[in-house]
Design a protein that fits this description.
The chain has 18 helices and 16 strands. With 460 residues, it is α/β, with parallel strands linked by helices. The protein folds into four domains: 124 residues, Rossmann fold (3-Layer(aba) Sandwich); 163 residues, Rossmann fold, CATH 3.40.50; 77 residues, Helicase, Ruva Protein, domain 3 (Orthogonal Bundle), CATH 1.10.8; 59 residues, Arc Repressor Mutant, subunit A. It starts with 5 loop residues before the first strand and ends in a 9-residue tail after the last helix.
Length: 460
C-alpha cells in the first residue's frame, strides 16, 4: 500500500466504534466512523475498507451493501455483526462482502482480516466479483450450525451461487450434500427454474443413461413413446448428480462429452440438444483415489470440480449438535404432529458423545425415533439407544457401543457391527437392508465384501 489506508467503522453502538477506532488507529490506519446507513453511504467514497454492522438506524447493512455495489470502486467491506445465521451470511457474501465476522469479536482475528483485505484490495477478492442484485434470498431448508466449518460452507454457497460454474460437493453419507446443492440453486438467479436431482446409485446403468439423456420411441424394448431426460427437464436450472462416483466408466465418457460440448442426444436419436443446466455433482467417495486407480476418469473429475465444497462430518463439529437438535426437532414435530419441546442436558451429552457414522441423517433418524416414543414433551437420554446400556425395548443392544473390555470401538467397527445387525434382522434380505441403512445395493455389496460379512455373522 502506497499510503495510509483509510478505514470507516459503521456501527450504532458508540462503545464499539470507540474500541475499534482506538485499536485500528494504534495499528497505523486512518480511521473515521459513521453510526447509521445514510452516513455510511455518504462517507464510503473516502474509505479503502469498511467495517459494517448489519443492524443500523436509517436502513440495514444490506441496504448499504446494495447501494455501494452500484459504485465503480466501493470500499472493501467486512461485515461485523451479532447476526449468526446462514441466511445473513449468504446474503452478505452475495452482495459483495469480503468477510463476515460475528460479535463478540476476536480482536487479533479482526486485525488479521483487515490486513488481508487491504493487501488484496488492488486485485479484489473473488467474492466481491460475485455480486448479486436479487431480492431476498430464498432457501430450501437450512444448513444448521454455528461452527467455523459450517460458516465456511455458508460463505462458499454465497460465492458459487452467483455463478453457473460446475460444483463438486464432497462429504460422507448423511452430511447434507443435497441440501447444499439446493441452497446453491435457490440462492441463485435461476431459483425459479427447475432443480432436478438424480441419485446415480438408485438405477441400473442402462436405465440411468435413459434417465439422463431421455429416449425416443422404439429406441429399445419398452420405449413406447418419446421421453425427455433429466438433462432436458432441468432446462436452465440445476441438474444435481448425487453419488457421481457410482456411474460406470462407459457412462462417465458420455457424461464428459456432454459437459465439454454442452450438447447431448436422446437414446436412439442423432439430433443434438443443448445442455443449458448448471451441473452440481456430489459424492462420499475419494475421487482422487479413484482417479489414481483408474476407476474414475481424470478429465471428468476436473470438469466437475471447477469449485469444490467439502462438508465436515458431524463428529468434527460436535459443537453444532445442540443447534441441529433444535432445528431438527422443530421439523420432526411438524411432520409427526408432535410437541416435544425440551431436550435434557443428559440427552444432549449422550448425543454429543456418539461417533455419528451416519452423520446428520443418522441424528435426524434417531431424533425421529425418540419423538415417536416420547410420552410427553420431554426427550431424555433413555429414548436414545446410544452411548450406554441399551434401554428397555432394545434387546439387540444397539446402545452397547463399547466392547467387553470396555474399550471404545473404531468408527469402522461400529459400521461393520451395525450392517451385520441389520442383515441378521432382515434375514439377509438385501433390499430391506438397503432401505433400513439408506444405502444403495452396490454400496451394501461393497461393504459386505469389505468387512468380510457372512450369513453367520453375529450381531454383537
Amino acid at each position: 500500500m502506497s499510503s495510509v489506508s483509510r478505514i470507516l467503522i459503521v456501527d450504532d453502538d458508540r462503545s464499539i466504534r470507540r474500541t475499534l477506532e482506538k485499536f485500528l488507529g494504534g495499528e497505523g490506519y486512518e480511521v473515521s466512523t459513521a453510526q447509521d446507513a445514510p452516513g455510511a453511504v455518504a462517507a464510503a467514497d473516502g474509505a479503502d475498507l469498511m467495517l459494517l454492522d448489519l443492524g443500523l438506524p436509517g436502513g440495514s447493512g444490506f441496504d448499504v451493501l446494495t447501494a455501494l455495489a452500484e459504485r465503480t470502486r466501493p470500499p472493501t467491506i467486512v461485515v461485523v455483526t451479532a447476526r449468526d445465521d446462514m441466511q445473513s451470511t449468504v446474503k452478505a457474501i452475495q452482495l459483495g462482502a469480503y468477510e463476515y465476522l460475528v460479535k463478540p469479536l476476536d480482536i487479533d482475528r479482526l486485525g488479521l482480516v483487515v490486513r488481508r483485505a487491504l493487501a488484496s484490495r488492488d486485485t479484489r477478492d473473488h467474492l466481491e466479483e460475485f455480486v448479486s442484485r436479487s431480492a431476498e434470498t430464498r432457501l430450501v431448508g437450512d444448513i444448521l450450525g454455528k461452527s467455523a466449518a459450517i460458516r465456511d460452507v455458508w460463505k462458499q454457497i454465497g460465492a458459487v451461487s452467483t455463478t453457473r460454474a460446475p460444483v463438486l460437493i464432497a462429504g460422507e453419507s448423511g452430511t447434507g450434500k443435497e441440501l447444499v446443492a439446493r441452497a446453491i440453486h435457490f440462492s441463485s438467479a435461476d431459483r425459479e427454474r427447475p432443480f432436478v436431482a438424480v441419485n446415480c446409485t438408485a438405477l441400473a446403468q442402462g436405465v440411468l443413461e435413459s434417465e439422463l439423456f431421455g429416449h425416443v420411441k422404439g429406441a429399445f424394448t419398452g420405449a413406447i413413446a418419446d421421453r425427455p431426460g433429466r438433462f432436458e427437464l432441468a432446462g436452465r436450472g440445476t441438474l444435481f448428480l448425487d453419488e457421481i462416483a457410482e456411474i460406470s466408466l462407459e457412462l462417465q465418457a458420455k457424461l464428459l462429452r456432454v459437459v465439454q460440448e454442452r450438447t447431448f442426444e436422446r437414446v436412439g436419436d442423432a439430433r443434438p440438444l443443448a445442455l443449458e443446466a448448471r451441473i452440481i455433482a456430489a459424492t462420499h467417495r475419494d475421487l482422487p483415489a479413484m482417479v489414481a486407480k483408474g476407476t474414475f476418469r481424470e478429465d471428468l473429475f476436473y470438469r466437475l470440480r471447477v469449485v469444490e465444497i467439502t462438508l465436515p462430518p458431524l463428529r468434527e463439529r460436535v459443537s453444532d449438535i445442540p443447534v441441529l437438535v433444535e432445528g431438527l426437532l422443530a421439523k420432526i414435530n411438524r411432520d409427526l404432529d408432535k410437541d416435544v419441546r425440551y431436550v435434557t442436558p443428559a440427552a444432549i451429552a449422550r448425543l454429543s458423545a456418539h461417533a455419528w457414522p451416519g452423520n446428520v441423517r443418522e441424528l435426524e433418524n434417531m431424533l425421529t425415533r425418540a419423538v415417536v416414543l416420547a410420552k410427553g414433551d420431554v426427550l431424555d437420554e433413555t429414548l436414545l439407544p446410544i452411548g450406554a446400556a441399551a434401554p428397555a425395548g432394545d434387546p439387540a443392544g444397539h446402545g452397547a457401543e463399547a466392547d467387553a473390555e470396555g474399550a471404545l470401538p473404531t468408527l469402522r467397527e461400529i459400521e461393520r457391527r451395525h450392517i451385520a445387525r441389520v442383515l441378521v434382522h432382515t434375514e439377509w434380505n438385501k433390499r430391506r437392508a438397503c432401505a433400513i441403512l439408506d444405502i444403495s445395493r452396490p454400496t451394501l455389496d461393497r461393504k459386505i465384501e469389505e468387512y468380510g460379512l457372512r450369513r453367520e455373522e453375529p450381531t454383537t
